[in-house]
Design goal:
By secondary structure, this protein is an alpha+beta fold. A two-stranded antiparallel ribbon has the order 1-2. Helix 1 packs across helix 2.
Length: 82
């Protein structure tokens, strides 16, 4: 299994059209965080998610930690679907 692949995908609604997006990898989580609504990028869980997801991409944190941080940040701003 790819070490960057999440065990379970995370569904969020973000982007200009608020379409549902399936995030299945650490890289996908990072890309979704980049697409985060600008007004919501200052929350503490967003900043923590960026740090942890970036660290996972660098190999110093686990994909599980990245997924947990991403889910928490998505919940914080109400974009988590599942």
């Amino acid at each position: 299994m790819d070490r960057m692949l999440f065990d379970n995908p995370v569904s969020v609604r973000i982007g200009s059209e608020s379409t549902q997006r399936e995030v299945t990898t650490v890289k996908g989580a990072y890309e979704a965080l980049v697409d985060w609504p600008h007004a919501k990028r200052s929350g503490p869980l967003y900043r923590e998610a960026v740090e942890i997801v970036s660290a996972a991409l660098a190999g110093t944190r686990t994909r599980e930690a990245a997924r947990r941080a991403f889910v928490a940040a998505a919940e914080e701003i109400g974009v988590l679907v599942s």
